[in-house]
Sequence to fold (283 residues):
Amino acid sequence: MTPDCKTPLRTALELATAGMPVLPLRMGKVPFGNCRACAAGACGGRPNMKEAGPCRCPAVCHGWAAATTDTRILASPAWAPAWRQAVTVAYHPGGAGLTVVDLDNAAAVEWARETLPATRTVPTTRGEHWIYRGAMTSRNAVRPGIDLKSSMSYARYLGPGTGHMVNLPDAVRALAARKPSPARPAPHAITAPAGSGVRECPHRTSVYLDRGIAMAEQRITEARSAVHATVYRTFLAVLSRHGRCGCLTDTHVNRLFTAAQTKGETVRHCMDAWTNARTTLGL
Fold:
């Protein structure tokens, strides 16, 4: 139930009317999975795609990209089954021109109070959301217990919060520019010795890597049970094949994370599984 004790749909309609792109969340605080015709974001919903948007099908699809301000869509019969199962409402901060600094524990909140300008704050289960006016690239784990939710991301709606919202400060933008955690490797050029010269990693110049990622997505998406174990084993298999040559980029990892989230995994679970797989392989 949303903080004001209204039904999720009623809260969503009010937020949409005010210009906030919203979507329902099911148990586990995750979006509803992609429809069968759009499995693994086939019609443009993957977070790494430059022009992702709401699915063309009538049902809820594609996580953050399903967020809309169109009250006709939100109240349509196609979305009714999702609202009957919804436990809360999420919104797309970037679509509303906002950035949410998600502070997941007391230490992170203390750091924000000492470092960032005061803005509108919303209490969460374990910490606070600090909301700034202005959109930016989203990134997880920029500091211990801190995620940035803005473009191509979603945040739970937990109430209007308190305080005056201020413009996004450079200090927050700088967090996204920091080196990402090992759980989300950054794209970088890879070369490997080839005789007397050098050449690109062969995975970058053939369909081999993309085929492997597509097979991994399918393995996760088709899991009917033991999803946690399937996600971990799949990550382990991908890293054992491609982790040492360094050809994996954020785009590839986001594809795997998105597939896992359509099965109900949280971002934090995905990051834990990825980190554990790297540790197992000594990467």
